[in-house]
């Protein structure tokens, strides 16, 4: 942790001098007072690119701007989004910082590093940059659709109005980047990265990342009609990747970013820990969606073994709550428009666990004084406290030393994710392997990763899940899977994938639009029509204002190229 914090300090200090670009106009002007690229350290560039990737994913400490993961968790009812309609969920300016991090930081650093690394024979540096560029640009397509790429910081030259490329062409370019990265990882390099923040320069693990990203790419495009994509291509490519046996299949190869524990100079903690416990971030709008907590608390005979690691309850019941705090508590009966099978207002204590206080999907009521009641993010993956039934009020700046003190992770591509993707592919494309077996392995690996991550806090307590409890939980899921038709089976695969994806809204948002599952999500908390679902997001306000080649969308409901499902497929 200390090493990472020191690295982050050096990155932030050096970047202030080295790269002062702070605008999404991509107008890159070389400063006579700054170091020129030939004087810069390739290792420094690589570290900055890696940090930017984590921030694009998870956001930034102490800032109101969220990363793509947060934007993805809200529409799919993992995290609460205010609404009250999908169109009003976000403002285009909400995406300015992410857009800036991609175009004015990460891509510029990659394009500056590449020729330096190639000239020096540092092919591992080059390969890592290619892998991260592919990940970043695929994510931009997933959220925004057609975006600038081929002319964006092309050749290191600033283009004021880069053209917008089709999402399909960017995906094709990303796939080629991953192929090229694997080739570069097979070359003899002059030196390995001195501070690889992900894998300490392990080339074998980076190859697995590249291959797993290709698995994701071809699963994502199984419905696409664009040239080079579609079901037959996806089936062939996925089978090749399976037979190659170079995927992230073991937790030791998980692709994650490890945050530190410093709370200043710089703040190296997980951004969600900062928001939940320090009071410096956007804590006022951090609510977990009731649907997601109910899914884990009450779907099966016993609560999910991961629930105490994911969430921290500050209250055991609501008897002391001021009724104004949550006005729907006072409802005598459910409103006619509410689905009675879904949790209304509060998560019911069906399986004996009470105190899960979140918000319903698109509930845009004002923020009440409910800090002492709100369920917070727990140990995994943000580094908060383990829920041991202590029910302490730990929100706010007085709780900065709780749990793992913010030493959480950004779970970008975990081994469990690979198995859930393989399960979906086996069920929908009939690719190699058994969907049920993949499902079971994915569940078990996710539970194992979470339990291991929180072992220092949970071990020896009566709340640490036993192997018998885990086996019983998995057996019940598989029994339901065996009893269902193909629609039920896909729903169960995706539900369990969603649970494993806690704090990775990128993959959850993609999976929901691709599969339409889970098809039993909580409805919008409004008597009015919430409007079309967010099939993509608004373009950045700054980008739309400054680039004449970008026309702002009339509504954030235009599907991205791989989402060929009909209107109303998701809501």
Automatic annotation (TrEMBL):
Domain of life: Bacteria
Pfam families associated with the record: SusD-like, SusD-like_2
UniProt key word rRNA-binding: no
PROSITE patterns on file: PROKAR_LIPOPROTEIN
SUPFAM superfamilies hit by this protein: TPR-like (SSF48452)
Sorted UniProt keywords: Lipoprotein, Signal
Leader peptide range in chain numbering: 1-19
Protein name: SusD/RagB family nutrient-binding outer membrane lipoprotein
Organism: Flagellimonas halotolerans
């Amino acid at each position: 942790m200390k090493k990472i914090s020191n690295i982050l300090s050096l990155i932030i200090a050096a970047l202030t001098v080295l790269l002062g670009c702070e605008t999404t106009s991509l107008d890159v002007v070389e400063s006579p007072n700054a170091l020129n690229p030939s004087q810069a350290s390739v290792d420094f560039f690589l570290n900055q690119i890696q940090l930017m990737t984590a921030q694009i994913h998870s956001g930034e400490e102490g800032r109101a701007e969220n990363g793509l993961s947060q934007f993805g968790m809200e529409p799919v009812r993992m995290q609460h989004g205010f609404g009250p309609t999908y169109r009003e969920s976000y403002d285009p300016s909400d995406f300015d910082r992410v857009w800036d991090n991609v175009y004015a930081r990460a891509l510029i650093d990659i394009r500056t590093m590449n020729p330096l690394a190639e000239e020096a024979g540092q092919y591992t540096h080059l390969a890592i940059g290619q892998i991260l560029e592919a990940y970043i640009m695929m994510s931009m397509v997933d959220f925004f659709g057609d975006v600038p790429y081929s002319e964006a910081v092309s050749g290191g030259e600033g283009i004021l109005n880069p053209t917008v490329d089709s999402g399909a062409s960017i995906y094709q370019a990303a796939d080629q980047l991953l192929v090229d990265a694997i080739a570069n990882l097979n070359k003899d390099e002059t030196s390995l990265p001195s501070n690889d923040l992900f894998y300490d320069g392990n080339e074998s693990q980076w190859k697995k990342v590249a291959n797993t990203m290709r698995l994701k790419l071809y699963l994502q495009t199984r419905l696409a009609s664009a040239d080079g994509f579609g079901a037959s291509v996806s089936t062939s490519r996925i089978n090749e990747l399976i037979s190659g046996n170079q995927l992230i299949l073991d937790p030791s190869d998980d692709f994650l970013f490890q945050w530190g524990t410093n709370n200043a100079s710089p703040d190296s903690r997980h951004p969600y820990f900062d928001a939940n416990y320090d009071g410096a971030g956007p804590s006022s709008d951090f609510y977990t969606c009731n649907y997601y907590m109910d899914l884990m608390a009450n779907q099966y005979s016993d609560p999910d073994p991961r629930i105490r690691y994911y969430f921290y309850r500050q209250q055991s019941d609501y008897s002391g709550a001021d009724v104004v705090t949550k006005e729907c508590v006072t409802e005598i009966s459910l409103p006619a428009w509410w689905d009675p099978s879904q949790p209304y207002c509060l998560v019911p204590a069906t399986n004996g666990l009470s105190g899960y206080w979140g918000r319903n999907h698109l509930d845009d009521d004002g923020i009440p004084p409910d800090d002492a009641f709100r369920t917070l993010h727990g140990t995994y993956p943000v580094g908060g406290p383990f829920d041991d039934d202590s029910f302490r009020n730990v929100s706010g700046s007085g709780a900065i030393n709780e749990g793992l003190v913010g030493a959480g992770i950004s779970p970008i591509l975990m081994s469990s994710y690979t198995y859930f993707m393989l399960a979906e592919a086996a069920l929908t494309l009939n690719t190699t392997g058994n969907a049920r077996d993949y499902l079971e392995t994915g569940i078990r690996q996710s539970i194992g990763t979470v339990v291991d991550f929180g072992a220092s806090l949970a071990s020896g307590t009566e709340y640490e899940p036993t192997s018998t409890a885990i086996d019983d939980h998995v057996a019940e899921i598989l029994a339901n899977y065996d009893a269902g038709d193909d629609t039920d089976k896909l729903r169960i695969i995706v539900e369990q994938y969603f649970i494993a994806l806690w704090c990775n809204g990128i993959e959850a948002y993609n999976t929901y639009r691709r599969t339409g599952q889970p098809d039993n999500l909580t409805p919008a908390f409004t008597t009015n029509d919430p409007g079309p679902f967010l099939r993509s997001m608004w373009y950045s306000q700054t980008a739309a204002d400054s680039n004449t080649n970008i026309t702002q969308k009339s509504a954030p409901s235009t599907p991205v190229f791989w989402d060929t499902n009909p209107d109303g497929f998701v809501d």
